[in-house]
């Protein structure tokens, strides 16, 4: 039986020829990492390879590790296998991994989105024979509005709350979503305050992108300072004593899951904004078509539904189990 160039096992996505794993979820000797979210970049590997803009991010999260940074489209060869990293557009420093051996080409997307968010290097189509795609939002119900429209809604919401003398608290994941929000908030409306987890990560990426000034909330911050201004906080802060001392306030969540009716109620927020760092249904289908791939392997998310639809379109499509979370981890997606 011929071993595929990339195979799934209990540690991750494995390239036997090179003895390298892609985003492994258990400790391995050699790991190529797509991006800095906790479900894709885990502690314990002996050697890490990632895009150079992701190096300070994973060092911030994982501590001192043996990591090598690569440029976009830079080819590096391991035991005859050619690897290169290409923009995924998911978050800052996020990459797809292209793997080539004896004329066979695979692409592993990690997580990705096709809309240019203004902080990530935009998604790049990479031609291949086999394409490993996430399916976090792989249902026809997920159809994103343009970021400019969503951010207009968010800024208008902030203006309304300011007029009522209330603090606006907006929940977004500390890496990626928070910086995307910061980049597109209108600082002319008021001051932007941040939870410590948001500020810590933002300090790491500030040298990489231009962001407006922010103010870290400390025990000395008075609720009077916050009135009429906006606070960016991780979802895990919701319902804590940290939040309750900010009254009067209005809460909102920025997430792809806000497209589901009832999601706002389940998360106990006053307002929901549909803003995701993953592809919607159309984005997934258009991306797959553009690669020219013959085989598609669907991972985390609605992989069963999505792969079934791909087979109906004539693709050689199947699912594979991983330990990636998609947009569910409060701190990191």
TrEMBL record:
Domain of life where this protein originates: Bacteria
UniProt KW keywords: Exonuclease, Hydrolase, Ligase, Nuclease
Uppermost EC category: hydrolase
EC number: 3.1.-.-
Record keyword Nuclease present: yes
UniProt-recorded Gene Ontology molecular function terms: exonuclease activity; ligase activity
NCBIfam families tied to this protein: Xnuc_lig_assoc
Name the record gives this protein: Ligase-associated DNA damage response exonuclease
Native source organism of the sequence: Flavobacterium artemisiae
């Amino acid at each position: 039986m011929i071993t595929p160039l990339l195979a799934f096992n209990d540690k991750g996505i494995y390239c036997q020829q090179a003895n390298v794993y892609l985003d492994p979820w258990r400790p391995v000797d050699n790991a190529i990492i797509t991006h800095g979210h906790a479900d894709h970049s885990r502690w314990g590997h002996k050697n890490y390879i990632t895009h150079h803009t992701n190096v300070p991010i994973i060092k911030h999260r994982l501590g001192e590790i043996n990591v090598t940074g690569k440029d976009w489209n830079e080819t590096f060869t391991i035991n005859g296998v050619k690897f290169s990293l290409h923009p995924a557009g998911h978050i800052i420093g996020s990459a797809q991994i292209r793997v080539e051996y004896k004329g066979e080409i695979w692409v592993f997307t990690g997580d990705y989105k096709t809309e240019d968010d203004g902080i990530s290097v935009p998604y790049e189509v990479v031609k291949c024979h086999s394409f490993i795609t996430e399916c976090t939002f792989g249902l026809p119900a997920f159809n994103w509005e343009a970021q400019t429209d969503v951010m207009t809604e968010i800024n208008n919401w902030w203006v309304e709350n300011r007029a009522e003398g209330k603090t606006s608290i907006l929940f977004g994941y500390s890496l990626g979503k928070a910086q995307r929000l910061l980049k597109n908030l209108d600082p002319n409306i008021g001051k932007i305050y941040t939870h410590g987890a948001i500020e810590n990560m933002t300090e790491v990426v500030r040298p990489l992108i231009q962001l407006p000034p922010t103010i870290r909330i400390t025990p000395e911050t008075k609720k009077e300072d916050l009135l009429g201004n906006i606070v960016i906080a991780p979802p895990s802060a919701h319902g804590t004593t940290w939040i309750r001392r900010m009254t009067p306030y209005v809460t909102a969540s920025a997430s792809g899951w806000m497209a589901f009716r009832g999601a706002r109620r389940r998360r106990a927020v006053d307002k929901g904004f549909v803003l995701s760092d993953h592809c919607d249904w159309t984005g997934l289908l258009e991306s797959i078509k553009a690669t020219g791939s013959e085989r598609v392997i669907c991972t985390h998310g609605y992989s069963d539904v999505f792969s079934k639809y791909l087979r109906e379109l004539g693709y050689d499509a199947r699912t594979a189990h991983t330990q990636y979370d998609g947009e569910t981890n409060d701190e990191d997606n």
